[in-house]
Specification:
Length: 133
Amino acid sequence: MARPPKPKAFGSAPPEPPRRQPSAKPRPQVIPDAVAGRMARRIALATGVPSVLGMGVFVVSYLLVSRGILDIPPVVTLVSSGACFLLGLLGLSYGVLSASWEEKAGSLLGLEHIGLNIGRVRESLRAMRSGSS
């Protein structure tokens, strides 16, 4: 036996969203894969190591206090782990800004690219502001 169609609330079906036509040319990739990979490695290292150290401060502090080896005030544990996490947060910016934004890789630490990349970010922000005004 066939079921009768369900009544529609408010009398009609919702309008279908307009279908997007596939664009003829693909959008250019903003960050090349080589550059994105380089940034990701630097971010993982510059953020990951301090974050692991920040968590390690809690573990080491707990072990030292619980076994009676040292009497560490809680504020020392909090400040030192907070400093490690802050260093990890700064590592995020360092990872992006120290990576060479060209196809060719830069030096191991990438300190020579920081000034150049900060200039690029400023130029981009200026262009966005002048374009939106």
